[in-house]
Amino acid sequence: MNSLPFMLGSDETQAVLSSTLRQIHGTDARLEGWTAHPFLKRGKRRTTRYDLDARAGGEPHIRHFQWVGKFYERNDDAPKVATVLRELAATDCGARGGFVVPRVVACHDPCGLLLLTYETGESFSKATARNGPSVPAAIGRALAVLHAAPVTPDGITGPAAVLGEVRRRIADLCARFPATAAALRRLLIGLERQAWTMPATSSFLHGDLGPSQLLWQQGRLVVLDFDDCTRGDPAMDLGNLLTQLRRLTLRKPGKLPDFAFLRRSILDAYQRWSSHDPGLAERVSWYEQIVLLQKIHVLEFDRTRHPEAEAIGRRQAEAVRLLEELPALVETN
After folding, report:
1. Which of 29, 91, 226, 245 could form a disulfide with 56 if both were Cys (CB 3.0 to 4.6 A apart)?
2. Which residues contact 310 (CB under 8 A, 6 or more apart)?
3. What range defines the domain where residue 23 resides?
4. How far apart are CA 300 and CA 19, in angstroms?
5. Are residues 57 and 154 in the same domain?
6. For 39-118, where are the E strands, in sequence order?
7. pLDDT value at position 45?
C-alpha cells in the first residue's frame, strides 16, 4: 500500500474531472469550468466539493454538476469504500429504511480520489428542532435497515478488541486524574465482567456514526462517510451515536431535546424495524460507556486536531465534565 500526496494540482484536477465527465456522459462531453470548495467539516479525510459547468451529449445548454471528492492516504482505501457504496446502491435498503447515501461517480485509484454525488440537507440539530420526534425515529429505522444490508466489508470489529483499547485509555486517564483513578478502575472491572460476545451473525456497521454524519433531506435521512465501515455488533454503532448525542446535549444545552428522550426514541424505532434482539439494550449501554471513555481520552490527550492553547483548554474542560457524567451513565444504564 503506497502513501498518496493527499491533493491534486489545478491541471491534474481538471484532467480528472474532464475524464470522469467523458466516462459518464460520452466522449463528446466537455468541461467548461469548475471550482473547488474544501469542506471544513466532513469526515476524517480531506474532502472537497466540486462545482462543474459542462456540455454533455452535444446539448447546447450548459449543465451544472456537484460532486464531492474524498482523498485517501493509501491507494487501496478509495476502491474499498467505493465497493461498499456500490453494494449499498444495489440493494433496496435506502427505500426501505427511508435514507440515502452518496452514490459513486468515479474512483481514481492512482491519486486516491473517490468522487461522489453531493448530498445536501439540514444538520441533525436543525432538523430535530424543526421536525421534532420524527427525526430520531427516522434514525432508528434507517440504522435498523442499514445494519441488515447484505454488504460485507473487510474486517470484523469485536468487543474484545474494543475492550483491549479501552484498558490502555483508562490507564492513561488514571495517571492524568489520580482523584478519579479508583472509580475508573472499578468501571473497567465492571466492563470486563459484562463484556459481551459477538452476536451469532455480524452486521454491516457504519463504524463512526455521529450527528455530523447525518443530514435531513426532504423528510428522509442522508448517511455520510462510510470510510470506517466494518462488520460487528449493531450495538456498537448505536452506542457511538448515542454517546455523541449525549455529548452534544451537554455542550449545547437547549439545542436538542432531552437526551433521555432522544435515546428512547432512537432505540424504540430501531427495535421496531429490526429483528428481535433481546440483549440489544444491555449491549448498547456497554458500548456507550466504552465510547464515552474513548472520547474523554481523545479530548484530554489529542493535540493534533486543534493545537491552539485555547482550544486545548476547552477540550480538557469538556473531558472533565464527561468524567463527571460517567457515574450517572453507569447507574442509569
Report:
1. 29
2. none
3. 10-117
4. 45
5. no
6. 46-55, 63-71, 99-100, 104-108, 113-117
7. 61
Residue of 17, 149, 4 whose CA lies nearest to 86? 149
- Identify the CA nearest to 257 among candidates 130, 131, 121, 132: 132
Predicted pLDDT at 332: 56
Asked if the model's pLDDT at residue 325 lies above 80, the reply is no
- For residue 55, what are the contacts with CB-CB under 8 A and spacing of at least 6? 29, 30, 32, 61, 62, 63
Q: Residue length, the chain? A: 333
Query: pLDDT tens, 18-49?
Result: 999 999 988 899 999 999 998 755 445 689 99
HEC readout, 100-115: ECCCEEEEEHHHCEEE
pLDDT of residue 333: 52
Say whether both 98 and 221 belong to one domain: no
* Model pTM above 0.85: yes
The last residue of one of the domains, among 98, 117, 136, is: 117
SS3 category, 153: coil
